[in-house]
Design brief:
- The complex is a heterotetramer, with 2 copies of chain A (about 300 residues) and 2 copies of chain B (about 400 residues).
- Chain A is of the alpha/beta class and about 300 residues long.
- Chain A folds into 2 domains: about 10-120, NAD(P)-binding Rossmann-like Domain (Rossmann fold, 3-Layer(aba) Sandwich); about 140-290, Rossmann fold, CATH 3.40.50.
- Chain A has 9 helices and 14 strands.
- The longest helix of chain A has 13 residues, at about 20-30.
- Chain B folds into 3 domains: about 1-20 and about 100-240, D-amino Acid Aminotransferase, Chain A, domain 1; about 20-95, ATP-grasp fold, A domain (Dna Ligase, domain 1, 2-Layer Sandwich), CATH 3.30.1490.20; about 240-390, Succinyl-CoA synthetase domains (Rossmann fold, 3-Layer(aba) Sandwich).
- The chains are: A alpha/beta (about 300), B alpha+beta (about 400).
């Protein structure tokens, strides 16, 4: 098993002929991800990745011809909302949108279309997901992973790499690592991913990497108490020292009034019995303290 | 992006919302002239309001009434130059003082969790909505606009009735829908009218009537959407922006100046915040938040270094790069170039891991004044120590 | 039982203070329909029907205060789409829209909102529904009915009355009579209503009254064969002699090209074993021929 | 409501779609002048097209090319006055003849069953779509627009690729979205371009390029929405409308003249059709379809009677009213009033049941020339007999 991506993933790459799309498609394929199709309007009939992957003009043609069930989107912000809707319209059920700087109101319009199609969107502005040893979709570096049973979910990009590297260095492998993105409007929340981990028999502990802004961490804490009280879980929150009212890079990372502060999040997580690490490098030790062993 | 009250009012007026006339004055004489015009048009009094992008200007003394033009000039000269939460007031808005019957609060805002536009209204207007939320949460009525069809007529009516605005329902519905239209037309994250007020107006023939008016407005724009609204970039208030912030934005860097002495250069917002947090935890004080972004090239790194060093309080710099899209050797080259060009030399602690970290190490090997660090904790400790040594 | 309306109906009347709304509310109440609320924005706090029915400003207040579960809409075309959305937004699950001349594109926008709310819309431009002896919602004259076991569904208004009168005259009572309306875009199709009749233990035979235009009758014939092959069913189709390309009153009643002709509909119905009457007055006889007895 | 090609083209052009220039001429001289202008602008030939609201004008000889202005005049004079399916041609459209590379079909139409706007495209343009649907159904590609967001970019691209228009994709996407915009802006039921053509154009410098152009257009408007588009009423072509139809419309009556001799007055469209059907079944010929609507008052009934009697072939009138909203006595009073005023007296068979049928019977009792009928079948038989007797 694993969640979101795995051996059953048949991946379409939207924007495969662009600079980003080409580079990351190579990386994903090299990792062993089963890339079955690329898509760029007007480049249908060409091939990508040294002739191994057919390119289509439309998602529906790509799905029809290759049975793609998952897509990853590397198209610019102006076209990304349409790309998401095209993917779900073609019957793709798992969509990763890597694109950043998509206007929030565009995402408000896209979400009901995704939901009506019964699809799952991860992102936008997310690094994707890797199930170590199985498949990697997105832009997470391949080298940081180790196969194992810890599920990692994060709103961040490089901070996730830092944490995953720390886990791997400590011999603590991962089932799946998921970056959900730092934008205000995202397709999958912490809780959406936690639900998947709950249902995954190969995930036995969870690391949640949050940051200031919004209340996703607080809601996750409540959800953990109600749904997976016995699952070992450790968290990290970035932005303990961030000043209020300033957007810390991510559009979502802003403390407004009393809402969204690291203190509020840490208090909620600890109240749910989730240990909160003070540094990413402390996470492996905290996991060991609650009984999670290296593998 | 935050914009000033006057610009927010322009955006509302462009959607047909009832906003009383206003003038922006940058000196007391201009404020006096604006007041003279308003008194000539029949105003009983004018209000002079500091134009700053921070809240609480009323409490700080930045909003005052004046009964005549001379008083308006005097009030304006007191407000101009005032410091409000670290911002020096350089302009004031002059508007007729309204004869307020009752004040309301009305806003639409991006609701992340619900993935909808949320309308919030309260019959307790004129005060901070956070305060109402705290003291009397039931006084706030909320409704989500339809994600595709916007605020539906019945939703606007419902909100109007809930606020006790049945007698002004048609006006209210038009204003609520206008708020949504303002949000959509400008890709705003927030459009707030506080107060929305029932004001008493005396016509030339002496008859008195009551209408709804938008007396104050706040609009925040979605930075990700500014590209498709070229006109809105002009509303950015450079008066209140640190020139360094302006430069950072032009370079596509996410930069926030802070009070400390340890400059930070990191790729990724979450990791940049974490680096700041760890500096503080180790007893240091970060001088900035700086995310150089995903695919930063060497020239961008050099610019980032310049931004950090433009702050004279910076005593040491911590570079923390987890190569993914960013390639470690590119960053390393940028650091070496920057170091070669910069006038002021401060200790530089560098930690580069991930993609091409080995090449980066080669580039940096033997460059004077650069201290390599292996782990994040190690890098932070070294940077804090370096800053303390330099102090 | 019965379908759509019955003793469990708690009716809201939207536009109760208008001329049409007042008149028909009186008629419905006189029939015994349980009218629990009226709604007209700005008239909240008043009462209607001689003080027996409270009037509200909003549907949500009406539902909250009275537990209304069904609504009937008598508001002008410009406000009717909004009235439908308000009703379903307030949690009402059965909506009858009597209003005519609603632009078709407005209805296209309304339908997904109705569906997302899990509600059922009958109409617009429909006469409503009556479950004889139980409740009457809409504008169907009270006098024509008789209690019984025949379900009647129709795209028409007065033609329905004609048929129902003929049934009643022949001693053949009805379980529920439903007019779905003659507009091109309507909330409930023949098949939607047939499904309800199928599930209703008190309906044992069905009369379907169609007309030229569209393909609803053809689809109903196929549905009957697949789902209720043994239920006695008789049909009538208006417009056998209508000229092609002219709109016969109803916006939906138009033969375009080869589509929508009476001949096509009659052929499909007969192929499904449904007898098609040549006159409304023949319907009782045809029903008796297939074993439906007066009650 | 159907509108003429020229008006349909105006609506498309208003949404920015590429439509070649055209002129409408009501006489051969005007057609000649229009042609002269087009030849002066570089046209190689012009096309003269009958403007009628019925299909098949090409087959009927209503569309012809002309190589010079004199020929244009001659062609126009042949087409003007022509009878096409019962309509006399009173105006022609004059447009440059396009150098067509390939023709396509593109339309958006209200899809009742799906409750969506359906886009239909075919690479077999220039012929009736029903014909393509019959001979080669696979040649028609269809896609439903999103009910709230309209035709999405990817849907337009998909359709373009399916039609083999990859080389003109950007143009095609703009045209397809423009079709939807035309539909929404005007509350149309149907917007059809046939042919949509790739045309070859030679620039002044001799370079040749290929573009998509809308060479013919058909738009049908939603009658229920005309109220909110006041400008569109002007597009109603009174040239082709029976004055009786115009009067009926103004009175809010739904009236269609037919070939027979038995006038019908009924309330409700379904019942009106049924009454016609039964007349025919009984061996009679209905002279019209007439639905007097729900709440018809006595004055409306009198107007309806006048409309029926304006047709000299009417030999008898059948009134069939099932009172519901309509009150039988109101209708009866209207009949008596009409009878009193009318010049021409034909036998009147009246059947009124339902609301206030008893009062109606009282009103009609003893009025000469009015024959009461009990059942629908009875009424139809009596009317058919009366018409036969009068023939």
């Amino acid at each position: 098993m694993s969640i979101l991506v795995g051996r059953e993933t048949r991946l379409l790459v939207q924007g495969i002929t662009g600079r980003e799309g080409t580079f990351h498609a190579q990386q994903m394929q090299a990792y062993g991800t089963n890339i079955v199709a690329g898509m760029t309007p007007g480049k249908g009939g060409q091939t990508a990745l040294d002739g191994t992957v057919p390119v289509f003009d439309t998602c529906s043609a790509a799905v029809r011809e290759t049975g793609a069930n998952t897509t990853v989107i590397y198209v610019p912000a102006a076209g990304a909302p349409d790309a998401i809707m095209e993917a779900v319209g073609a019957g793709i059920t798992t969509v990763f949108c890597i694109t950043e700087h998509i206007p929030a109101l565009d995402m408000l319009k896209v979400m009901p279309v995704v939901q009506a199609a019964g699809a799952r969107l991860v992102g936008p502005n997310c690094p994707g997901a890797t199930s170590p040893g199985r498949a990697k979709v997105g832009i997470i570096p391949a080298t940081i992973h180790r196969e194992g049973r810890i599920g990692v979910v994060s709103r961040s990009g490089t901070l996730t790499y830092e944490v995953v590297q720390a886990l791997t260095d400590a011999g603590m492998g991962q089932s799946t690592c998921v970056g959900i993105g730092g934008d205000p409007i995202i397709g999958s929340t912490f809780i959406d991913i936690l639900e998947l981990f709950k249902a995954d028999p190969e995930t036995s502990a969870i690391v949640l990497i949050g940051e200031i802004g919004g209340d996703a961490e607080e809601l996750s804490a409540l959800w953990k108490t109600a749904n997976i009280p016995d699952t070992p879980m450790v968290a990290f929150i970035a932005g303990r020292t961030a000043p209020p009212g300033r957007r810390m890079g991510h559009a979502g990372a802003i403390i407004s009034g009393s809402g969204g502060s690291a203190a509020s999040k840490i208090a909620a997580l600890e109240a749910a019995g989730i240990h909160v690490a003070e540094s990413p490098t402390h996470i492996p030790r905290l996991l060991q303290e609650i009984g999670v062993r290296p593998n | 992006m935050k914009i000033q009250e006057a610009d927010a009012k322009s955006l509302l007026a462009a959607q047909g919302l009832p906003v009383p006339p206003w003038t922006v004055a940058r000196d007391p004489a201009a404020a006096r002239r604006a007041a003279e015009r308003l008194f000539a048009e029949g105003a009983d009094a004018v209000v002079i309001k500091a134009q700053v992008l921070v809240g609480g200007r009323g409490k700080a003394g930045g909003v005052k009434l004046a009964k005549d033009a001379a008083e308006a000039e005097a009030v304006a000269s007191r407000i101009l130059g005032m410091d409000i939460k670290g911002i020096t007031v350089v302009k004031v808005l002059v508007a007729p003082a309204a004869d307020i019957v009752k004040e309301f609060y009305l806003a639409c805002v991006l609701d992340r969790a619900a993935r909808r536009v949320l309308f919030m209204g309260s019959a307790e207007g004129g005060v901070e909505i956070e305060q109402v939320a705290h003291s009397d949460p039931d006084a706030i009525r909320t409704i989500h606009a339809h994600p595709h069809l916007g605020l539906l007529d019945f939703q606007a009516r419902w909100l109007g009735f809930e606020l006790g605005l049945g007698a002004h329902l048609k006006e209210f519905v038009a204003i609520a829908k206008g708020l949504y239209a303002t949000m959509i037309a400008n890709d705003a994250d927030l459009v707030e009218i506080n107060p929305l007020a029932i004001v008493r107006e005396r016509a030339a023939d002496g008859t008195v009537s009551e209408h709804l008016q938008c007396l104050d407005a706040k609009v925040t724009l979605d930075d990700s959407a500014l590209d498709r609204h070229p006109g809105l970039e002009a509303l950015r208030d450079l008066d209140e922006e640190d020139p360094v912030d302006v430069q950072a934005r032009h370079e596509g860097l996410s930069f926030i100046r802070l009070e400390g002495d340890i400059g930070c250069m990191v790729n990724g917002a979450g990791l940049a915040m974490t680096t700041m947090d760890l500096v503080k935890r180790a007893g240091g004080q970060p001088a900035n938040f700086l995310d150089i972004g995903g695919g930063a090239k060497s020239d961008k790194v050099a610019v980032a270094m310049g931004l950090i060093l433009s702050d004279p309080s910076v005593k040491a710099i911590l570079v923390n790069i987890f190569g993914g899209i960013a390639r470690g050797d590119e960053v390393a080259r940028g650091l070496v170039e920057a170091r070669a060009e910069q006038k002021r030399v401060v200790p530089l602690v560098v930690r580069i891991v991930g993609t091409n970290a080995d090449l980066a190490a080669e580039v940096l090997r033997g460059v004077p004044g650069i201290e390599a660090a292996s782990s994040l904790d190690d890098a932070v400790e070294k940077a804090v120590a370096a800053a303390k040594a330099a102090a």
